[in-house]
Design a protein that fits this description.
The complex is a heterodimer of chains A (about 375) and B (about 375). By secondary structure, chain A is α/β, with parallel strands linked by helices. Helix content of chain A is about 45%, strand content about 15%. Chain A is globular, with a radius of gyration of 21 Å. Chain B has an eight-stranded parallel sheet. In chain B, strands 4-5 form a two-stranded antiparallel ribbon. In chain B, α6 links the parallel β7 and β8. Chain B is globular and about 60 Å long. The chains are: A alpha/beta (about 375), B alpha/beta (about 375). Chains A and B meet through α1, α2, α11, α12 and α13 of A and α1, α2, α13 and α14 of B.
Chain lengths: ~375, ~375
């Protein structure tokens, strides 16, 4: 089921499967956009909620859109702002009209409607915009709420499409909802597919649900979406999660994890245990780079021993590990993509998992997910 | 010493924990300097002797800054040094709150494993304002003793490298007789240069220095030093102070000042381009292209919609690619990139200032340049 493709966007061609680093406030944790270009990153994320507040729509318009404002010439994807509103604010009220919320900054009341979300996203100017969806936490116990949410999501999609005045410059993706019920998911996917949209996102996951349920729902959602359009699983994530989702038929991923964990001095690697906690004393005399096979500028110039002395102390240490972690994620995706193109994806997955779990004690959920699509791991 | 490779006056790039603040090897390239020279304070590395010993390649490769020229000093000029912690045998250095007592033996061991290109012998510059004559004289005496020992050991230690140069620290606080003594004595030793130490205790105390208060002592001190050897001065130096120090005979400075400005989330905007043969009127009009004033605070709400660069026609990476509005936004949302971009601009601005200083000096128009600095203030 794994696929590889070239996705042509206004600002760049993106080769899927792809991981998109998250530059929440119009910047990626102290990294200059040109450094990302050097890593051959083709697309990154920005958050509508944050940018809509600061610097705000007016400034973004005056600045010629976010690409120009932040000096990132390649592609951008923005979320709708809905998710953050629900997760960051203490008081949100969702009505048919939109999301009513209280700003955590100054307590002021604000309404985010599908129309307003599109308006802000158009001011930002991202290559891919997300619809405003009615997102419910996957651990919610109220089935009716999920039912209401997925129908409303479809209605809001239509309003978003209506409000979207630049379909030639910006793509609008709908988001499949439906909680953890396969039937609801399938139905939602069917509804969204009826609209003429360039791609799809699978949302409402990566909350508190367990991993095997997560995989089940991703699989069902992906299965019921057209083959010839990209599928974006929002908020994923850790290495194994990403590869599992690729195996289940998804193409695009985003997560703050690589850059967030860099702040704490944690570097991503392919071998067990998948992360190096550089603060640990065992790295004091380790004069190897984070990854001997990595060609990012951090691995070309710095040793684990040096990074050990500066992580969490000097701001540049955060930049150094962030660069590596983004490079790592991009390399992971490239390896997956190359394997798919060469028709060797199952072998790639087997090796990938063995490197991470040399004792072969693979997590059950992952093993099952891979088996479910015909990939067996080394015993 | 290095004067044939470097045109003086020029400022060194400071490092903290082995990194130029906010910059990495990769982003250092964006500063576009043909040859970077860096200042490495012992205080961040004295506890790394065992690591450097194992590493064997010296401190520059360790901190990821090979192919730079390195100068090892004791205390970090960008941060105020804690006063009163030295004793008879040791100099104290602080890394965060951790105190390390450095005696000669330990210092020499460090120099051996760090292998800097230039090093300042262990010295006692702890002579802030109001220090007693007795303490000042002690600092002078100890520094000379340390210097002599270092010179002896350098002679017999191949590991230190014949290629490395020693820059001796001249002490004496603001006390004329102590200074003259220190200068005269130090000048007789076979060193490659002199560092004018002890006029402040780094950090904001350097920024607070009033030239009028030290100029007599400073000038007399420098006059006692051989003219053929370079003079070093470290500590935040605003343009005016740079003029004064340069005129008094200083050749090599550091970049504490732009580092400090960046930490304050400000951008340097003072006129730093030397226009030859300009009279005051002309320079006033050419300077009118620039922002009036000396720095801009990136928190200024007026910058919110300002899509111009920090300084018009500045050739630094930040000014070529980013706007005031964007940097203002970064500062307001507390993003790390703010200080990265400000560092690139402020360090560049300071470097250009020194380039202009060199040109103005060659053209014998220093006064002209200095006045242009104030034309729009």
């Amino acid at each position: 089921r794994a696929r590889a493709a070239d996705m042509t966007l206004p600002h760049s061609v993106v080769q899927t499967p792809i991981f998109m680093p998250v530059g929440t406030q119009g910047t990626l944790k102290g990294i200059i956009p040109e450094q990302l270009e050097a890593l051959d990153c083709r697309i990154m994320l920005a958050n509508t909620y944050h940018l809509g507040n600061r610097p705000g729509e007016q400034v973004l318009k005056a600045g010629g859109g976010l690409h120009k404002f932040m000096n990132w010439p390649r592609s951008l994807l923005t979320d709708s702002g809905g998710f953050q509103m629900v997760s960051l604010s203490k008081l949100t009220e969702i009505t048919e009209e939109g999301v009513n919320f209280e700003s955590p900054y100054d307590g002021s009341k604000c309404m985010l409607t599908p129309e307003r979300s599109i308006e802000i996203q158009q001011a930002i100017g991202a290559d891919i915009m997300m619809q405003l969806d009615d997102v419910v936490d996957s651990t919610c116990k109220d089935e009716d709420r999920f039912e209401e949410a997925r129908h409303r999501t479809v209605r809001w999609l239509d309003r978003c499409i209506e409000a979207h005045t630049r379909p030639d410059k910006q793509n609008l993706f709908p988001i499949v909802q439906g909680g953890l019920d396969e039937g609801k998911r399938k139905d939602c996917a069917d509804q969204l597919t009826k609209r003429n949209v360039p791609g799809f996102a699978i949302g409402g996951l990566s909350g508190g649900e367990d991993k095997s349920t997560f995989c089940r729902i991703v699989k069902v959602s992906a299965e019921n979406l057209p083959d010839d359009k990209p599928r974006y699983v929002m908020g994923v994530g850790h290495q194994v999660d990403i590869i599992a989702c690729v195996a289940l038929g998804s193409d695009m991923f985003d997560c703050v994890f690589p850059t967030r964990t860099a702040r704490f001095g944690s570097a991503l690697v392919f071998e067990y245990p998948g992360e190096l906690q550089l603060k640990k004393s065992k790295f004091k005399m380790d004069f190897r780079p984070i990854d001997e096979n990595c060609d990012c500028s951090t691995c070309q110039n710095y040793t684990r021993a040096y990074l050990h002395t500066v992580v969490t102390k000097e701001p540049s240490a955060c930049h150094l590990v962030s660069i590596h972690n983004v490079a790592h994620q991009l390399r992971l995706m490239k390896r997956a993509r190359d394997a798919i193109i060469e028709d060797k994806f199952p072998q790639f997955v087997a090796k990938f998992m063995l490197d991470l779990y040399p004792d072969k004690k693979y997590p059950d959920w992952a093993q099952q997910a891979f088996q479910g699509v015909g990939i067996s791991l080394e015993e | 010493m290095r004067s044939k490779i470097f045109q003086t006056p020029f400022p060194l790039l400071n490092t903290k924990g082995g990194a130029i603040p906010h910059l990495t090897r990769e982003t250092l390239d964006y500063l576009n300097m043909p040859q970077a020279s860096i200042l490495i304070p012992l205080q961040y590395h004295s506890h790394q002797i065992d690591v450097l010993q194992q590493f064997k390649k010296g401190i520059q490769p360790f901190i990821g800054l090979s192919d730079t020229v390195s100068i090892l000093t004791i205390q970090d000029p960008t941060e105020e040094t804690r006063s009163g912690y030295h004793n008879n045998k040791c100099i104290s250095v602080f890394n965060n709150s951790n105190r390390d007592m450095i005696d000669l033996r330990k210092y020499i061991e460090f120099v051996k494993v760090a292998k800097p290109d230039v090093w300042i012998p262990l010295c006692d510059g702890d002579t802030p304002k109001e220090t007693s004559k007795k303490r000042i004289s002690k600092a002078v005496k100890k520094s000379l003793e340390y210097l002599d020992h270092c010179l002896e050991i350098k002679d017999v230690s191949p590991e230190i490298g014949a290629g490395s140069a020693i820059v001796a620290a001249v002490q004496g606080g603001n006390e004329l007789s102590a200074r003259k003594y220190s200068a005269k004595e130090t000048a007789t030793r076979p060193v490659d240069g002199f560092m004018l130490d002890g006029f402040h205790t780094n950090g904001t105390t350097a920024d607070a220095l009033v030239w009028e208060e030290i100029k007599e002592v400073f000038s007399e001190t420098v006059n006692l030093l051989p003219k053929t050897k370079p003079r070093f001065y470290f500590g935040a130096a605003r343009p005016d102070l740079v003029f004064d120090l340069f005129t008094a005979g200083v050749d090599v400075f550091d970049s504490s000042y732009p580092v400090m400005i960046t930490e304050r989330e400000e951008a340097l905007v003072f006129p730093n381009i030397f226009v030859p043969n300009s009279n005051l009127d002309k320079s006033a009009s050419s300077m009118s292209k620039y922002q009036t004033g000396h720095v801009i605070s990136m928190r200024d709400p007026e910058l919110k919609m300002d899509m111009s660069s920090l300084v018009p026609e500045c050739s630094c990476y930040t000014c070529r690619n980013f706007t005031r509005a964007y940097i203002h936004h970064l500062v307001m949302v507390k993003e790390m990139l703010a200080k990265v971009l400000l560092s690139l601009h402020n360090l560049h601005h300071y470097q250009v200032f020194f380039k202009s200083l060199r040109e103005a000096s060659k053209a014998d128009q220093l006064e002209n340049f200095r006045q242009a600095l104030h034309a729009n203030q």
